[in-house]
Amino acid sequence: MQVSAAGCGHGGTVTSHGNFPPANLSAGSIGFATVRIFNHASPGHHTLSVKCNDSNLVATHRFTILEGNPSQGGIGGSIGPSTAETAIGAGLVGASALGAGAHVLRRRRPLRSQV
Fold it and tell me: What letter does residue 46 receive in the DSSP assignment?
């Protein structure tokens, strides 16, 4: 999630207990921070806090974590092929084998007119 805050000229910290690790806010007239919501964070309304490095004031803002399923990532194997995909693949392999076999037989057989 991208967080921006105006008024923290010397940067600051963005926190939300249990939802993401503390992140540093960049310095400048508008500071930015990118936070990654924990996978185990509960859906619903939550509050984040921004504390500037040059002030004791803390600003808060509400945000919402949507309910959803985690992505199925990884290096292959997370989702197997469906029955239809397997049948199509087998059909393509079979057709290519038949085509290759026909090509080889045709190339090996001498033509009758050349005998």
Answer: E
Q: Are 33 and 24 in contact (CB under 8 A)?
A: yes
Dump pLDDT digits (tens) for 48-69.
999 999 888 889 999 999 987 6
d(CA 52, CA 59): 9
Give the pLDDT confidence score for residue 48 in this predicted structure: 95
Edge-to-edge strand list for the sheet holding 12-16: 20-25, 12-16, 44-52, 58-65
- Is the CA virtual torsion 83, 84, 85, 86 positive or negative? positive
Amino acid in the structure at residue 99: G
The secondary structure element, H or E, covering residue 107 is helix 83-108
CA distance 39 to 21: 12
